[in-house]
Amino acid sequence: MPLDFTTGSIQAYIDEQNFELATAALIGGRTAGFLTPQVGVKGETKINKMDVDVVMQDGSGCSFAQNGDITFTQETIDAKQVKINMEFCPKDLNAYYWRTQMPAGTHQESLPFEAQFANYLVAKVQDELEKVIWQGDATSGSGNLAMFDGLLIDAANFTDCNGTSGSFGSALSGSINVGNVLEAVERIYVESPSAAVAQDDFRVYLGVDKFRALVSAIMNGQGGPSLFATNLATNGSVDRADVDPLRIILPGTNMEIVGVGGLDGLDKVIGFSSNNAYLGVDLSADSTNIESWYSQDDRKFRVAMEFTMGTGIAYKSEVGKVII
């Protein structure tokens, strides 16, 4: 008679030795790359603006009559100093499957997954900053959104492209969806100030969720008698997947449309020139730099990031909005 194994007092083996850590997907920080950087910012700082009066006169005579002024004004970037501090006790890992990856001896000064942790931390910080760059409110925001004012803080002063007195006759209502997102984008193109739309770097921004609805609407001809749908059928693809899968450029216009995480979940479509929107920082790389060290005083592994950041718009009326 063959002998049986008696295993009732032990647990079945579960392999926990795959040390490549899975991490949640992130949209990432996209908007910062489309803004004009203003470096050397350590706190509240100004965007300096200039305007010039052009007064034409009758030139048939020989006289010189001065007429015209240069006017200087300013807008504010209310930049704030931000920090991230983390602290870990490496010995806490000894109670779990990471024990096999810990260095020999009781003196442990590092984390076995330090490199992967650092890379994901940088990506996660950029993902969070993306939301603050748009939605931040240093006065009444909560959590990370209270760190500094974002671009939407001045939305009341943007040009409203969802009115009833313009080319469209009535305003969009409810929510932005696959049935009306084409019109929302068209309104930015048609109703924003002409000088702003004429700029080579004028772009329309909307959440990644609304961007996907836009692509679906274009592919399926939804949204009514759309200028964009007509141009697509006439002129071919508007895909820019070779550049970025969340960017398209629309035929017959100079206008690129970008899906961004900072507007995800919001019924907002915003259009502006990159030269009109500023990101104030001390050094551009500060928000991706990580300091890490082992504190012999506390016997813990510490991580720190510090940076200064804020946003500002030079000419608020040159920003178009459809906000439902």
Write a structural description:
This protein has a single domain (31-56, 68-323), classed as 2-Layer Sandwich (Major capsid protein gp5 fold). The protein contains five helices and 13 strands. The protein has helices at residues 114-135, 181-191, 194-197, 208-220, 227-235; strands at residues 36-38, 44-52, 70-78, 80-88, 159-160, 202-207, 247-249, 256-260, 268-273, 277-281, 291-295, 300-313, 320-323. The chain has a six-stranded mixed β-sheet. Strands 1, 4, 10, 11 and 12 form a five-stranded mixed β-sheet that branches. The longest helix has 22 residues, at 114-135.
Keyword list:
324 residues; 13 strands; 5 helices; six-stranded mixed sheet
Question: What value does the Rg take, in angstroms?
Answer: 27 Å
Give the strand order, joined by hyphens, for the main sheet: 5-13-9-6-8-7
Fraction of helical residues: 10-25%
CATH topology description: Major capsid protein gp5 fold
Give the DSSP E fraction (strand runs of 2 or more residues).
Answer: 15-25%
Let me know the average pLDDT: 85
* Spans where pLDDT lies below 50 across 5 or more residues: 223-229, 233-237
CATH homology superfamily name? Major capsid protein gp5
Major β-sheet profile: 6 strands, mixed
Shape: elongated
Question: Summed up, what is this model?
Answer:
The chain is α+β, with helices and mostly antiparallel strands. The protein contains 5 helices and 13 strands.
